From TrEMBL:
It comes from the Bacteria. This is Glycosyltransferase. It comes from Micromonospora qiuiae. Pfam families: Glyco_trans_1_4.
Amino acid sequence: MDLTVVVTFFPLPQDRGDPIRVLMMLRALARVRPYTLLVVRRSETTDAQVAELRALLPGVTVRDFAATPYRLNRLGPLGRYQESLLDGMPPWVRTRYSQELHDALRARTGAGLAIGEAAGAYIRDVPLRWHWDKANVLVASSRQDVDEAHGVAHRLRAQYLARISARFEERALANCATVSVTSAEEATRLARAYGRTADFTLPSCVPLPEGHTPRPLARRLIWLGSFSYRSNLLGLHRFLAEAWPKLHRAGYVLELVGSGLTVPIRNGLAGYDGLAVTGWAPDLRPVLARARAAVVPLWSGAGVKLKTMTLLAHSVPVFSTPVGLEGVPPTEGACSADTPAGLAAAILAATPDQLDRMATEALRLVRERFSETHFADRLVGSLGRHALLGEAAPREEP
């Protein structure tokens, strides 16, 4: 059976959680059988990055497409919202949509693997046998956005997005043969919202860093995440307002690392002392090597968090809210607290010996449960059981 894989956000560079998961899936499948990859370029994607992706996926036919511009873009946000409504997509999905890719899909036969929420746009009317790998259940995450909205305009926008996201998701689910989610909690959300049972759970995993040697500084904390993701930024500001003064007085420094750091966001952090605002780091190893521990202050969001997995894989003890540890089994490598004050208290109470033990257990957990090898075995086995991979024999990498 022919296999077509659709990705709506180019997986290079590896600058946030979604591209990490996507590239891991693509590489795992390439080790098992050939397939055709249809991928939407980001606005900044270069030909060199397309060539790099092809080199990473030997035997895979890679076809790249530009996103289709909005027809009503001249009208600004009002035009984009009207157009996305007419097309039956949330605006952020429409931004990643390629009509050319959609047309190319109509000539394909066999099975289809749609990776990520926005790929649901192609499931609706392309008659492949689709599997949808979902990073989160949109109806649940969009309701969280409504709860977090401030002001009438923001709330109305969030309510609109929640309604169109639910309709979009319901229609795509009705047309896919099988679906996977990232955690047991997400499977529960899917069943509660749509009465649909997830066919399997595929937790997000991370590659183990090569050549990484931790050299932690005694009172160096780190925060890792995309600044452009609203839940990340809300959680960070809550932590800074309610927990950071006490930690800063105790001599801690908090380094902030991640993509999407804009001038307004940087300016909004300027009022806090003791921060090292790094932003995007192309190589996380030297940054995480100096971290004694990490904070993951999240009070909304869904699924296994790649930031949490990345920190654990680099032997960094994690102090997180339960949301930040979703899908992570109980481990001595992480400590959970519900409030900013609780996170601060746990960090202040941790002894050097405890932090050393946490670092050891963090790496052990990822090696045993969340490694790239474990992810590949689970992905290929699950898709094989649901007849998405046909009966092609495994092939060795060149």
